[in-house]
Write a structure and sequence with these properties.
This protein is mainly beta and about 500 residues long. It contains 1 helix and 31 strands. Bound molecules: beta-D-fructofuranose.
Length: about 500
């Protein structure tokens, strides 16, 4: 007879709280087609995986408030990455070894079960000193209910290589390879910056240390959070989210960012050789991306659509935090490129096209392109020097602007007038990596977000806006001689 999974009091409390909150009609409207916090706060995507033919996504979750608190894991699933079904909370910080939080982790299907691997954080108060130990833990379940294993924590502090911090040891990402389950996990090295440790197991209970896969060595920020490691075409990609970065030209902004290291990996010796470095996303709100491999062979990434330093939601909204659109990853000329999952196109309705035409010198409104839940595609080209300016979600008072200056190939996103109320970073510029003088922009808009895919996803910029939903105008102008050709598709969930 199958054993019943016990639901702890803390988990039941979270489930009941969530269920009741969802029945009330007091929250701000959610995004139309992006995963949002059901209630309260969410951060990193966790456990992005396929189990019994469905795609599951978990997330860092504190249901009781719109700010970060002791971490639970929330849960949704989908068959197409666009329409998500809400499921009950799967983990609460209800054990001694994870009483301060069930931090980020990942999942895989193994021997017919759904395995979650996460960081349990235990807070110790001793001699007036507070210490948070981070260790790796396992929970196993059936797609709804999960049980933390008796052996937890399965990777303890004494399995960290010498000099590595016991306090910064988190965010395991697992996959199967040969007869093993492999894991990469973030750690802080003796030099104060991140390193990525690799472990493996054959049975989930006994893990062995394999290697230090890569070291930050104080080059890209300090601690490296949320590592991911995967093959992509002929290369390997190590993706990390560095804290405390210093800005490097327009490629990396200051603070918490996302870094892809592209290189070669030898599966026998476990040596990773770095070749190229790039920002994963250069917008204002993107962190902690995680990927999964679909059964049809696609590497899909989802990120937390928020920056740690600012949040654009208030207690009155009732929820805070959301995810990006899931994105297919490819390598093009050695660069990591992203496009929205192809399933998005199944939700397109009401296509409008704008034939190639000159962009006027003063702002003109394009009524047929207006909208707030849509994919807008623009191809801009010109003769000589020009500066193209686009206003989205615009009226007389509000707008979000996207400008392209072909002289220095600079693309600038600005949400200063997008309903945001805090004195924070609202603008970001990137150097467009292209030999062409023209530019292609795919602009994916949902109620609170704009995701910009530049030149078929060679670069992306993801940002949150708070412009009232009914403000949906699209305006364009150009100095110099520029032409635009456009098409837009509304996105409808019916
Ligand atoms: C990244 C992160 C992780 C940690 C989690 C805690 O955003 O700081 O390193 O596991 O959030 O919620």
């Amino acid at each position: 007879m199958e054993r019943q999974i016990e639901i702890s009091e803390k988990l039941q409390k979270a489930r009941t709280y969530e269920e009741q909150a969802l029945k009330k009609d007091t929250m701000a409207p959610k995004q139309l087609f992006h995963v949002c916090a059901p209630v309260g706060w969410i951060n990193d995507p966790n456990g992005f995986s396929e189990y019994q033919g469905e795609k599951h996504l978990f997330f860092q979750y504190y249901p009781y408030d719109t700010v970060w608190g002791p971490m639970h894991w929330g849960h949704v699933k989908t068959s197409d990455f666009i329409k998500w079904e809400h499921l009950p909370v799967v983990m609460a910080p209800d054990e001694t070894y994870d009483g301060f939080g069930c931090f980020s982790g990942s999942a895989l299907e193994w021997k017919g079960q759904h395995v979650l691997v996460y960081t349990g954080v235990e807070r110790e108060e001793k001699d007036g000193k507070t210490t948070d130990y981070q260790r790796q833990c396992v929970a196993v379940g059936d797609g709804i209910n999960y049980e933390k294993t008796q052996k937890n924590p399965v990777i303890t502090s004494d399995m960290i290589p010498q000099g590595g911090s016991k306090l910064d040891f988190r965010d395991p990402k697992v996959w199967t390879e040969d007869k093993y389950i492999y894991m990469v996990v973030g750690n802080r090295a003796e030099d104060g910056s991140g390193q990525i440790l690799m472990y493996r197991t054959k049975d989930l209970a006994t893990w062995e240390f394999v290697t230090i896969l890569d070291r930050c060595a104080n080059r890209y920020g300090k601690m490296w959070e949320c590592p991911d490691f995967f093959a992509l075409e002929e290369k390997y990609v190590l993706m990390v989210s560095p804290q405390e970065m210093q800005a490097q030209e327009n490629e990396f902004h200051a603070g918490d960012g996302s870094l892809a290291i592209i290189g070669k990996y030898d599966r026998q010796t476990h040596q990773f050789v770095e070749e190229d470095f790039q920002s994963v996303d250069q917008g204002l709100d993107f962190y902690a991306p995680q990927t999964m491999l679909t059964s049809d062979g696609r590497r899909i990434m989802i990120g937390w659509m928020q920056a740690w330093c600012e949040s654009w939601f208030t207690p009155e909204d009732g929820f805070c935090g959301m995810m990006t659109i899931p994105r297919e990853l490819q390598l093009k000329d050695g660069r990591l490129c992203q496009t929205p999952v192809r399933e998005l196109a199944d939700y397109y309705i009401g296509k409008h096209e704008l034939k190639r035409q000159q962009v006027p010198q003063i702002f003109q409104k394009y009524d047929k392109l207006s909208g707030r839940t849509q994919m807008l595609e623009l191809n801009v080209d010109g003769e000589g020097d020009y500066r193209f300016e686009l206003k989205l979600a615009a009226n007389d008072q509000y707008y979000t602007s996207v400008c392209y200056d072909n002289r220095d190939k600079l693309l600038t996103f600005d949400r200063s007038y997008s309903g945001v109320r805090r004195d924070a970073a609202h603008t970001r510029s990137i150097n467009v990596l292209s030999n062409q003088e023209s530019i292609k922009l795919q602009i994916l808009m949902d109620r609170y977000s704009i995701e910009l895919f530049v030149n078929d996803g060679v670069q992306t910029m993801t940002s949150v806006i708070r412009t009232p939903e009914e403000i949906d105008g699209v305006y364009m102008k150009a100095t110099g001689l520029a032409f635009v050709q456009a098409q837009k598709n509304n996105i409808c969930m019916k």
